[in-house]
Design goal:
single chain; about 130 residues; mainly beta; Neuraminidase; 4-stranded antiparallel beta sheet; globular
Length: about 130
């Protein structure tokens, strides 16, 4: 479940159920549109959901953006951290084996994607 919680009064403002997420980041497009990006723990896929002007999730706007599954040195990474630098999406992936092993003990891979604004897609350009 994704929760939108008010930092002012700590109340839940919105929820998005049925999502097992790890790694969250907001991307703002050129026209001011905002999307919350999140990685699915069990599949390695990265999805996004639109955020309305009122800050609530836009129903029916969840879409698959890309995936780290099957690529990288292990091929079984989950997106642990997502961040943006202009038209770049930088994803830190770790092997997720359904345990609580400290992340400092897990090897991490960085995936760098470039935004193609005309096609509204992300292209993998580097793996470190």
């Amino acid at each position: 479940v994704l929760l939108h919680i008010s930092t002012h009064d700590k109340k839940v403002l919105d929820t998005l159920k049925g999502i097992d997420a790890m790694g969250l980041a907001v991307f703002q497009g050129l026209k001011g549109e905002r999307r919350l990006y999140f990685g699915k723990i069990r599949t390695g896929e990265i999805y996004s959901v639109g955020i309305g002007a009122n800050g609530k999730f836009i129903r029916g706007s969840v879409q698959l953006e890309c995936s780290v599954s099957g690529i990288g040195p292990r091929g079984d990474d989950a997106p642990r951290k997502i961040r943006f630098d202009r038209d770049l999406m930088i994803v830190n992936g770790i092997a997720f084996n359904y345990n609580l092993q400290a992340s400092s003990e897990k090897p991490e891979t960085t995936y760098v994607y470039l935004r193609d604004p005309s096609a509204k897609t992300w292209q993998l350009i580097n793996i470190q």
